[in-house]
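Exercise 7.
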Amino acid sequence: MTASATPAAFGKSAICWLEVEGRDRPVWYVPAGEVAYVVSGPGEQELPELPASVPITLRVKDTREYAGRFTASATRLRPGDEGWDDAVGALRPARLNSPDDDPVARWSQDGAVWALRPDFETPTPVARDAPSGAREPAPTSATTRGRMPGHLGKRRRREG
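Solution. The predicted structure, written as tokens, is:
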């Protein structure tokens, strides 16, 4: 995917992966021009405090194709800050199935609203042989240790 396609994919998508504390976390966001808004906290997606600069991995919405990895500056917005009204104005209609009638009041008291400003000019390269981050499955008693039963995997005979 080309660098010029990344801003278009960023504006059309609603999910990205933020690398926080050494692990990629899926996050829903609302794009608004050159800024994306993220909300976290009780009743919302769980995120730790974001660093000032956070790596983002983006995929194309339709094909889930890798679109790029880049860095964004993260700024926490609080009620009364410049940009707070723009952020909650974009987040409120996009927040579906809210657990309460007024999520903005909850966000201002217990939540965290973030403004992410991506830097598309300097993409972060990812090595093709980089580890995926997948972990070994946890041991379980449901594992088949012996041979498969004799009737599995055999083809039926054709009669006739």
